[in-house]
């Protein structure tokens, strides 16, 4: 579900094969963020935008975690801070535009919602399959795997919202699903930021 995924994934000492697979998953997540966010904009679906946030969060989480392997604690916590700030800004924007839409409810295009939601589900299932070989590995590896699986629940929620929009010919199912997902996301983005700030502080304290 939105923002469920490991905040502090660390991949020190993973095999070259696992690293390659992670990069592939990062590429899929980054691409799907772009696809789902622009489809959300075009179709007027807030649920698609909210679901897109999770792809961004996952791409940043795994991308940064892989990029800072072997880096200093300071670099790691700065990267975490940057991630927290960008996720929070995106989350505030999606949540805000969802609240705004409550007062100007339009009817999003259910067909686009349904098909992009399905595409997102396929992307997450592909990620699960790419990482499946490692699912019994250490806790970190397992959390990546579980996270992709849980994200599939969010994709199904988007498809249910599409069905609801189609059935009721209103935008409400879209807004309800989007509100829940964006709220969950905002909450976890906030937690990431709080933790990053805490890490910065304790790092600064150790330096003196
Ligand atoms: Zn996720």
Key phrases:
6 helices; binds zinc ion; globular; single chain; mainly alpha; 208 residues
Task: Walk me through this protein's architecture.
With 208 residues, the chain is an all-alpha fold. The protein contains six helices and no strands. It has helices at 16-43, 46-67, 73-103, 110-131, 139-168, 172-207. The protein has one domain. The protein is globular and about 55 Å long. The longest helix has 36 residues, at 172-207. The chain binds zinc ion (ZN). The site of zinc ion has 6 residues, from helix 2 and helix 5.
Q: Rg from C-alpha positions?
A: 18 Å
Structural class: mainly alpha
Low-confidence stretches: none
| Tally of contiguous helical segments | 6
Count of folded domains: 1
Strand content: under 5%
Please state the overall shape, judged from the principal axes of the Cα atoms.
Answer: globular
GO molecular function, one term: zinc ion transmembrane transporter activity
Keywords: Ion transport, Membrane, Transmembrane, Transmembrane helix, Transport, Zinc, Zinc transport
Subcellular location: Membrane
Transmembrane segments: 22-43, 55-73, 85-106, 112-132, 152-169, 175-194
């Amino acid at each position: 579900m939105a923002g469920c995924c490991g905040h502090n994934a660390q991949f020190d000492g993973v095999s070259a094969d696992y690293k390659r697979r992670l990069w592939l998953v990062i590429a899929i997540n980054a691409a799907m963020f772009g696809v789902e966010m622009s489809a959300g904009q075009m179709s007027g679906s807030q649920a698609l935008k909210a679901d897109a946030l999770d792809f961004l969060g996952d791409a940043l989480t795994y991308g940064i975690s892989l990029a800072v392997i072997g880096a200093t604690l300071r670099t790691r916590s700065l990267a975490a801070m940057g991630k927290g700030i960008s996720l929070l800004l995106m989350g505030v924007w999606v949540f805000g535009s969802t609240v705004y839409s409550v007062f100007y409810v339009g009817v999003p295009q259910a067909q686009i919602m349904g098909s992009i939601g399905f595409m997102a589900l396929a992307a997450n299932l592909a990620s699960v399959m790419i990482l499946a070989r490692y699912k019994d590995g250490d806790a970190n590896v397992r959390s990546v795997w579980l996270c992709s699986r849980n994200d599939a629940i969010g994709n199904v929620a988007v498809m249910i919202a599409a069905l609801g929009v189609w059935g009721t010919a209103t935008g409400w199912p879209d807004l309800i699903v989007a509100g829940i997902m964006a709220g969950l996301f905002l909450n976890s983005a906030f937690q990431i930021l709080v933790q990053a700030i805490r890490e910065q502080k304790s790092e600064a304290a150790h330096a003196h």
